[in-house]
Amino acid sequence: MASPLKSIAISWLSISVAISSAIAREVFHERPKLALVIANARYRAFNQIPQTYRDAEIVSEVLTSAGFDVVIFRDLNSERLYTQILDLARRAAVSRTEYVNPLVLLYFSGHGFSRNGQQFLVGVDAGINQDPIVESTSLDTIVSQFSGKGIFVGIIDACRTQLRWRESNKPVDSDPVFVSKNQDRTKDLTGTNSGAIHSDYLIGYANGFGKPVLASTPSNGDNSPFSDGIRRYAARGSTLNSELDAIGEYLALDLKVDQSPGVEDYIYGEVYLRFRPQTLKEMEREWNGILESPEKELVKEFLRRYRNGPYAAEAKRWITLNEN
Description:
Helix content is about 40%, strand content about 15%.
C-alpha cells in the first residue's frame, strides 16, 4: 500500500502534468481551421448559376483534406446568409484563446456586385422588388465580424461589376441592369473599405475590380475556372499568397480566361492552408534554434513567416512577455 505522503506526491505530479499538457496544447498547436462554403445558384431576380453547386463541392473537398472544419450551404437568402456569417464568427470566438486564434475561411460562389467601391454578396432573394443592395451583404460587414476573433480569409467567386439599379415597368422578376466599368483598381475601388476596418484578413477574388466571372468554360461546363484552379493549386503546402498567384497564372496562361484575379491582403505575415511535413520539420528546427538565444526581431520574423503555424502561439506569447 502506498504511503499517504507518496499518494499526495503522485497526486501533485498528476496535476502538474495535466497543467503542463494543457499549456502545451495551447502553445504548440496549429491553429484551428474553420470554413463556411456557400453556393448560391437559384436566384429569383438574377440568372441562375447551377455550376456553383460543383464549385462548393470542389472547395469543400480541398479544405476538408487540409484539415478544415467545413460547413456548406446552398441557396441562402439574405437573412440566412448573414446568419451563417455570424455563426462562423461565433465558432471562431469559441475556438480562440489568449494566444491561439483560428484560421477562418469563407468561400462564396454566386452573384456579386460592386457599389461605391465596396463588394457585395447577393442572397437568392435579392432584387425581386427592390434594389438588390437591400438584400445583399457587403464584405465590409463580413470582415468586421471577425475582428479580434481570428485570421479571416475570404475567397470570392462572384462578379465585381458595378451595379446600377433602376425601377421600371418590367415584371418584378426581371433582371436588374448591370454596368461593367472595367476600370483599373485604385484605393477607392476595392472590395472593402480597408481604412474603416481594423482586422486581420485577406480577400482572394476570382477577378479584378469591374470584371465579371465565368461560371464555366467551353471545355468544362460543370464548374467555374476559379474553382478548378483551387482544386489544382490550393492547400498544396505553399503560402496562401503564392497559391493564389498560381491560380491566377493558371486562369490566364492555361485556360486563357481574362478575369485578372486580385487579392486584398491585410494579414500580418504569411498563412498556409496546409503545411507540408518537411515545412513542419524545418519550422521546428528553426524555432528550437531561436529559443537557444531568443531575440525579439528573430521571433517577430519567425511569426511573420509562419503566422498560423504550430509555434505561432508560443512566439506570440514570447513577444508579449518580453515587450518591455
